[in-house]
Structure formats: C-alpha cells, structure tokens
C-alpha cells in the first residue's frame, strides 16, 4: 500500500522543481529553440517560394520571349511578303511599260516604213511617169519626124474619133 | 572444457548456498519493494551510500539533519533528536525510542533519494537544453550539429506530431509544458534504469503532480465548447443531465488519473520485473540460473529503454489530446454541412 500512497514531501519537491524547470526551460531553452526552428523553417519556406517565384518568372520571361520571337517571325514574314509583292509589282509594271513602249515603237516603225514605202512608190511612179513621157516624147519625136508618119497618125486619131 | 564449467558452476553454487545460509532468509519481495521505494539515503553499491538531508517541519519548527544520524556504527536504526526512521517513514520517537502514532503537525520535506535523483535529472536537463539553445544561437540559420541534431528531430516531433496534430492552431501556448514533461519523464525514466538510479517516474507522487498539472491546464484552457459538452452535451435530452453531468465531471478526473497510474505502473512494473529476474538467482540459490536471468533481464532492459521513451511519448500525447479537446472549436452535429463559414 505504501507504493500507491503519495508522499507529501515528494509532491512538494516535485511540484516546486517541475515548475521551476518548466519556467527556466521555457525561458532559456524552448523559446530560443522554437524560435530558431521557426525562423529556419520560414527562411527555408521563403527560399522555396522565392525559387518557385523565380521559376514562374522565368517561365513568364520565356513565354514572353517566345511571343516576341513569334511576333518577330511574323513581322519578318510580313516584310518579306510585302517586299516580294513590291518586287513583283515593280517587275510587272516594268514589263507592261516595256511592252507598251515596244508596241509603240513597233507601231511608229511600221508607220515610218509605210510612209517611206508610199514615198518610194510615189517617186517610182513619178519617175516611171517621167520616163514614160520621156520615152514617149522620144518615140514620138522619132516617129513623127517624117510628114507621112504624122499624116498616118493624124488619120488614126481621126478614125478613132469617128468611131467614138 | 565442459567438465570445467560444470565444476565451476557446482563450486559457485555451493559457495552461493553457503553465503546465503549465513545471513537471514532472502525475501525477494522486500528487496524489490526496497529498491522501488523512496529512501532517505542513496545506496549506489554496498559501502557507497550517500546520506541525504532530512528536513522536517514539526508544528512550524524547522528541523534539518543528515539521515546518517538514524544509523549507529553497526548500521542499526536509532532514534535521533526525538525522531525515528521506521519502514521508510520518519515518526516522532516516544520515550522508549519507538515510533509514536501521533503524526499531527509533522511534515516531511526531506531530500529523499527520489528528490536527489530529480535534482540530478534537472541538472542534466538544464545542461543539455541550455547548451542546445546556445548552439541554436551560435549557428543560427545553419544546419544543426552534435547534441542539437540529436534532439532537434525529437523537439520537432513533439511540436508537429504531438502538439500541432492534437491541439490545432493554438498549439504554441502548450509547447513549453509539453516539451518539459516529455523530456522530464524521458530523462527520469532513463535515469531510473541506471544502476543505482531512483525510481522517480515510478513513484505515484511524481506522476500525481504531473497528471494534476495536465488536469489544471486542461480545465483552465477549456473554452465554451468544452464546458458546453460537459454541462449540456449536444444531442442528449435535457432530462438526462442529472446523469450526464456527474459522468462528464468524473470523466475530467479519470483522464489525468489514468495518466498518473499508467506512468507509475509501467515504470514500476519494469523495475519489478528486472529485479524479480535477478532475484531468481537468489531464490534458486544457484549461479546456474544467472545466465538465464541475465539474458531475460537484458531483454527486459532493452524493452524498458523503449518503454521509457514510449511512456514519455504517451503521457505527452495524451496531455496534448486533452488540451486539444479543451480548446477545440467544435462543429456541432446539427450544423454539419452548412456550418462552414458560420464560425
């Protein structure tokens, strides 16, 4: 029975000692230890969240870079397209212009050739006419050098006139 | 070789028998009870005895002397200054030097073996945890090292698994108490296992104080819900209150009572078992039993090392659970499901 009978003196010492121990330990041991643990945990947590933040930022940056790159690519494509269009246009215009010019020149040349031809033909005609007159004059002069021939001719004309 | 052993054992058996037949008869019960009980002197070994101071308050009069005064040269108990030590208790001595029945006004505040052992444990606790606290200051923000790295996981375990898990967001207030009882019980359990150690945590007075502190903290931190559950248990008809209230009030007391008995019984039982195993050698009066006794005792000792930690953990855990019950913000059955946001 002695075993389960609490001893008054021991209760007293236990209570006093335990309370003093608890007070001193909480003040000089648990407080700094818990504080240090909490501090370390917060610092670790902060470091982790900062790393996470940095990762997110990095991803954002990467996405932005990609966006910029894509934009740049699109811009380049657009510029290239525009440039090629402009070049095509230029070539097209030049081609039409050249065609027009060529056509115009050909037309001019044709006109000039026609004119020259007409002129040449007129000259040939004139010359032929002159030659013919000349020839005729010479023939006539030769034919009509004797009065008999002149007579015959006159008779021919007269004949012709009667027939008319 | 085998013969040599048998010879040796038989010789030792004979000599053991011879030794025990010289003195009075061996009573294992007395030996064990003496070992687990408190004492006014501290026997480390035969001849190595530390006589501890006796402090008495006799009707307001302060009396103090060494407990060695109770013994004469032949190590027999004698009365001293009108007091006598009888069966581990101090009584006033009557005219013939016999213990008198009149104990009124006599209070015994002696530094007994248990108190002395507690002081040793306290010194150890201070030594360990002040040094750890200083190393936290010294290498702040760095990884723990040495003693610090051994105790840090335990402190974190007490905080995260015992306090946070059972008390909830208000756990911080109870941390000093929980950490102190955990390490106080554990250290004293281990010191009790040391050879010559006192059976402090296996003493009902010690566990009574610890359990009472848990009870007081629980009662004083009880919130509206806690008392509401005791005096008007939800879901129980009003006419049952005359039965329910006493039952709940007894429930408040049975919890720390179980704490008190559990720690006391576990530690005392461990000591009794180990001592009983050793007593077998003397009961059988044969050294041949010794290897078996020692083997079992070693097994028990390792078990006790585990129990030392386990009981410290259980005491702390249950205390934390009681505190948690006292500060918990209950979700009543009737507002379950749509009680969210109402608190």
From TrEMBL, chain A:
A Gene Ontology cellular-component term: proton-transporting ATP synthase complex
Molecular functions (GO terms): proton-transporting ATP synthase activity, rotational mechanism; proton-transporting ATPase activity, rotational mechanism
Coiled-coil annotated spans: 37-89
Chief location category: membrane
Alphabetical UniProt keywords: ATP synthesis, Cell membrane, CF(0), Coiled coil, Hydrogen ion transport, Ion transport, Membrane, Transmembrane, Transmembrane helix, Transport
Intracellular or extracellular location(s): Cell membrane; Endomembrane system
Pfam families: ATP-synt_B
Membrane topology: Single-pass membrane protein
Keyword Iron-sulfur: no
TM ranges: 12-30
Record keyword Phosphoprotein present: no
Similarity comment: family membership: Belongs to the ATPase B chain family.
Biological role stated in the UniProt entry: F(1)F(0) ATP synthase produces ATP from ADP in the presence of a proton or sodium gradient. F-type ATPases consist of two structural domains, F(1) containing the extramembraneous catalytic core and F(0) containing the membrane proton channel, linked together by a central stalk and a peripheral stalk. During catalysis, ATP synthesis in the catalytic domain of F(1) is coupled via a rotary mechanism of the central stalk subunits to proton translocation.
Subunit structure: F-type ATPases have 2 components, F(1) - the catalytic core - and F(0) - the membrane proton channel. F(1) has five subunits: alpha(3), beta(3), gamma(1), delta(1), epsilon(1). F(0) has three main subunits: a(1), b(2) and c(10-14). The alpha and beta chains form an alternating ring which encloses part of the gamma chain. F(1) is attached to F(0) by a central stalk formed by the gamma and epsilon chains, while a peripheral stalk is formed by the delta and b chains. F-type ATPases have 2 components, F(1) - the catalytic core - and F(0) - the membrane proton channel. F(1) has five subunits: alpha(3), beta(3), gamma(1), delta(1), epsilon(1). F(0) has four main subunits: a(1), b(2) and c(10-14). The alpha and beta chains form an alternating ring which encloses part of the gamma chain. F(1) is attached to F(0) by a central stalk formed by the gamma and epsilon chains, while a peripheral stalk is formed by the delta and b chains.
Protein name: ATP synthase subunit b
Organism annotation: Pontibacter burrus
Automatic annotation (TrEMBL), chain B:
Listed GO CC annotations: plasma membrane; proton-transporting ATP synthase complex
Transmembrane segments: 115-136, 174-194, 200-220, 263-284, 290-315
Location(s) in or outside the cell: Cell membrane; Membrane
Signal peptide segment: 1-18
Family: Belongs to the ATPase A chain family.
Membrane topology value: Multi-pass membrane protein
Principal location: membrane
UniProt cross-references to CDD domains, sorted A to Z: ATP-synt_Fo_a_6
UniProt keyword Transport, yes or no: yes
Function noted in UniProt: Key component of the proton channel; it plays a direct role in the translocation of protons across the membrane.
Highest taxon in the source lineage: Bacteria
SUPFAM superfamilies: F1F0 ATP synthase subunit A
Listed GO MF terms: proton-transporting ATP synthase activity, rotational mechanism
Keywords from the named record: ATP synthesis, Cell membrane, CF(0), Hydrogen ion transport, Ion transport, Membrane, Signal, Transmembrane, Transmembrane helix, Transport
InterPro entries (alphabetical): ATP_synth_F0_asu (IPR000568), ATP_synth_F0_asu_bact/mt (IPR045083), F0_ATP_A_sf (IPR035908)
The name this protein goes by in its record: ATP synthase subunit a
């Amino acid at each position: 029975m002695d075993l389960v009978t609490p001893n008054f003196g021991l209760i007293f010492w236990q209570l006093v000692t335990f309370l003093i121990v608890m007070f001193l330990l909480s003040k000089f041991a648990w407080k700094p230890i818990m504080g240090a643990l909490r501090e370390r945990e917060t610092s670790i947590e902060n470091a982790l969240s900062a790393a996470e933040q940095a990762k997110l930022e990095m991803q954002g940056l990467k996405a932005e870079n990609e966006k910029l790159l894509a934009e740049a690519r699109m811009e380049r494509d657009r510029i290239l397209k525009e440039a090629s269009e402009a070049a095509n246009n230029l070539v097209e215009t030049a081609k039409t212009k050249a065609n027009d010019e060529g056509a115009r020149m050909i037309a001019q040349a044709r006109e000039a050739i026609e004119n020259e031809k007409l002129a040449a033909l007129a000259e040939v005609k004139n010359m032929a006419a002159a030659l013919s007159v000349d020839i005729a004059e010479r023939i006539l002069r030769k034919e009509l050098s004797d009065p008999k021939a002149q007579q015959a001719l006159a008779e021919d004309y007269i004949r012709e006139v009667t027939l008319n | 070789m085998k013969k040599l052993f048998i010879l040796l054992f038989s010789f030792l058996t004979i000599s053991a028998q011879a030794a025990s037949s010289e003195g009075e008869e061996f009573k294992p019960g007395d030996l064990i009870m003496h070992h687990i009980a408190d004492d006014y002197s501290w026997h480390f070994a035969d001849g190595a005895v530390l006589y501890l101071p006796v402090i008495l308050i006799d009707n307001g009069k302060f009396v103090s002397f060494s407990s060695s005064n109770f013994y004469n040269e032949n190590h027999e108990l004698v009365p001293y200054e009108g007091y006598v030590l009888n069966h581990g208790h101090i009584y006033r001595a009557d005219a013939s030097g016999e213990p008198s029945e009149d104990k009124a006004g006599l209070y015994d505040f002696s530094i007994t073996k248990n108190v002395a052992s507690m002081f040793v444990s306290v010194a150890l606790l201070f030594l360990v945890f002040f040094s750890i606290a200083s190393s936290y200051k010294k290498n702040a923000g760095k990884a723990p090292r040495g003693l610090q790295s051994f105790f840090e996981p335990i402190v974190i375990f007490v905080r995260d698994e015992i306090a946070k898990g059972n008390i909830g967001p208000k756990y911080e207030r109870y941390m000093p108490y929980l950490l102190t009882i955990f390490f106080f019980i554990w250290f004293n359990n281990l010191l009790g296992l040391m050879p010559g150690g006192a059976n402090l945590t296996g003493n009902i007075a010690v566990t009574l104080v610890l359990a009472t502190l848990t009870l007081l903290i629980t009662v004083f931190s009880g919130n509206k819900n806690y008392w509401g559950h005791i005096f008007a248990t939800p879901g129980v008809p009003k006419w049952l209150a005359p039965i329910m209230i006493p039952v709940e009030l007894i429930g408040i007391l049975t919890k720390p009572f179980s704490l008190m008995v559990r720690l006391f019984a576990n530690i005392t039982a461990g000591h009794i078992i180990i001592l009983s195993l050793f007593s077998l050698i003397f009961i059988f009066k044969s050294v041949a039993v010794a290897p078996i006794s020692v083997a079992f005792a070693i097994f028990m000792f390792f078990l006790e090392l585990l129990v030392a930690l386990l009981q410290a953990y259980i005491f702390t855990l249950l205390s934390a659970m009681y505190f948690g019950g006292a500060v918990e913000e209950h979700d009543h059955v009737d507002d379950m499901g749509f009680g969210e946001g109402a608190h």
